[in-house]
């Protein structure tokens, strides 16, 4: 991934890594996450799917509500996480339905979408691996699991 902008490069890395992670066959070891952001995404995605599986059956509403072109509010971190997790679920559906040519296109589309829509706000918050962003990812997962964050 030869993107000159490190933020965009990380966005594509996250899209490709998360989808490859989700598509891994049970019982076959998965490669380690290639970055702190991808490791955080894997963990947050797993926790979200365990806690709220029904939420991801309603994925069209998530995109409608959070990513409408006329959106004028601050981007919610749960919505950022949802883009990746929902793409993973879509890829699993394609894989189960014998559409093996679709996942690479989804990876590209998710990377492109994140680059256009999400990266500008991530940049304003200090990047994917800033302390602020990693803390927010942790707080999202903890709130979903109803765990009190450390003081």
Automatic annotation (TrEMBL):
Pfam families: Bcl-2. One of its GO terms (cellular component) is mitochondrial outer membrane. It comes from the Eukaryota. InterPro entries: Bcl-2-like_sf, Bcl-2_BH1-3, Bcl-2_fam. GO terms for biological process: extrinsic apoptotic signaling pathway in absence of ligand; intrinsic apoptotic signaling pathway in response to DNA damage; regulation of apoptotic process; release of cytochrome c from mitochondria. Residues 62-128 form the Bcl-2 Bcl-2 homology region 1-3 domain. SUPFAM superfamilies: Bcl-2 inhibitors of programmed cell death. GO terms for molecular function: BH domain binding. Belongs to the Bcl-2 family. This is Bcl-2 Bcl-2 homology region 1-3 domain-containing protein. It comes from Sinocyclocheilus grahami (Dianchi golden-line fish).
């Amino acid at each position: 991934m030869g993107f000159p902008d490190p933020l965009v490069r990380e966005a594509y890395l996250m899209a490709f890594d998360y989808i490859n992670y989700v598509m891994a066959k049970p019982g076959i070891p998965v490669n380690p996450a290639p970055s702190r952001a991808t490791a955080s995404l894997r963990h947050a995605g797993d926790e979200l799917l365990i806690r709220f599986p029904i939420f991801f059956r309603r994925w069209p509403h998530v995109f409608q509500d959070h990513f409408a072109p006329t959106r004028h509010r601050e981007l919610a971190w749960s919505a950022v996480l949802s883009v990746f997790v929902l793409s993973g679920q879509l890829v699993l559906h394609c894989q189960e339905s014998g559409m093996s040519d679709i996942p690479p296109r989804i990876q590209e589309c998710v990377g492109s979408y994140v680059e256009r829509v999400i990266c500008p706000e991530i940049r304003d918050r200090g990047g994917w691996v800033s302390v602020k962003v990693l803390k927010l990812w942790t707080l999202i997962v903890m709130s979903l699991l109803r765990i009190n964050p450390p003081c």
